[in-house]
Amino acid sequence: MDRASDIRVGLVAGTVGAIAGGIPSTAHALVTGRDPLEASYAAGAILLPHEERRGRLLMSAAVAHGAISLFWGVVLARVLPRRRPVLAGAAAGLAIAAVDLGTVGRRIERIRTLPLGPQLADHAVYGAAVGAVIARARTPWLNRRGGGACPPKAAGPARPLSQDGRSW
Contact at 8 Å (CB) between 89 and 83? Predict the structure, then answer.
């Protein structure tokens, strides 16, 4: 893929990853009786650290989390290996968690107080989803104009065959 393709694929991958990446912490919050939007409020606190109004925090979260997810999606589109990009993406997601939660997260109380396990799972799922989108984009037979879900046909006879298998 060229640089422009990497950016396009990275933006799509980052979007898919941002959506899928919230599933583990949301599920954990629902199972444990916590507010399922708490991680979103925490993301909103990145831009509005002293804000308490939930609506504003959610709007801020959409901007902050969206920008971060798109940025990492483009980075991963450039650096993920061709072999096992989903696994590499999950590992990259955990590395991103170390950066996100270890630097920014330590300074913001709403992030610091989130349960760590679900946040790590969110990042791993984000990276795996990004890797899956990138893997699909790198598969040449899926890149044909008009899509297509089937691999290219194997080379066959040059002339059509009759019903009994003989050439016309």
Answer: no
Which contacts of 103-107 are long-range, i.e. CB under 8 A and separated by 24 or more positions?
104/46
DSSP letter, residue 155: P
> Which two three-digit tokens encode residue 142?
């899926």
What number of CA atoms fall less than 13 Å from residue 2's CA on the CB side?
A: 1
Furthest-apart CA atoms within the chain: distance in Å: 79
pTM of the model: 0.81
Please name the residues in contact with 91: beta carbons below 8 A apart, sequence gap of 6 or more.
Answer: 127
Handedness of CA 103, 30, 68, 88 (dihedral sign): positive
Tell me the pLDDT tens digit for each residue of 103-121.
Answer: 888 899 999 999 999 999 9
